[in-house]
Specification:
75% helix, mainly alpha
Length: 163
């Protein structure tokens, strides 16, 4: 039953990525929703101090505007967390073998690369290696946490059976 849940998660994540990569920026933008939800631009002051180097540019509130900067943060966070979750799903689906961590990372890298390629075929979208690097940073963080969880859990089980 647990494997079925993980397979359903895998299908959901891959379907979501495919749909997302198939949409133009105009179909995906959350700026109008942000303008509606955050009319007073909360946190504008602290966010205006934040500058993020990305794709040869410095992304900031000043450079993009408040709502577009928030959208940038949301989109890049989605990359990190989505591919992190995908890596964890790959890890759980793989048999308990020695290189499970690295195989899950490789599958995630291939998925991230395929996602960027697919995105490049969509009008008004660009594929960047920076997004693949961001995807992989999420994957590696999630895989490390997952590996720590598995190690802690198996150590805990061994301690209970011995004691």
């Amino acid at each position: 039953m647990k494997k079925l849940v993980v397979v359903v998660l895998l299908i959901g994540i891959v379907a979501g990525l495919f749909i997302s990569s198939s949409q133009t920026y105009e179909q995906q933008t959350i700026v109008p929703k942000l303008q509606q939800l955050l009319p007073n631009q909360p946190l504008e002051q602290p966010l205006s101090k934040l500058q993020i180097p990305y794709w040869g540019k410095i992304i900031s509130v000043e450079e993009r505007g408040y709502y577009y900067f928030i959208e940038f943060l949301a989109r890049k966070s989605a990359h990190f967390f989505t591919f992190g979750a995908l890596a964890a799903v790959f890890f759980w689906l793989l048999p308990k073998i020695r290189y499970r961590f690295f195989i899950a990372a490789l599958f995630t890298f291939l998925a991230a690369s395929a996602d960027e390629f697919h995105q490049s075929l969509t009008g008004g979208r660009t594929a960047t290696w920076q997004d693949v690097a961001l995807d992989m940073s999420g994957a590696l963080v999630f895989l490390l946490v997952t590996q720590l969880f598995v190690s802690f859990r198996s150590k805990s089980r061994r301690t209970r059976t011995m004691g």
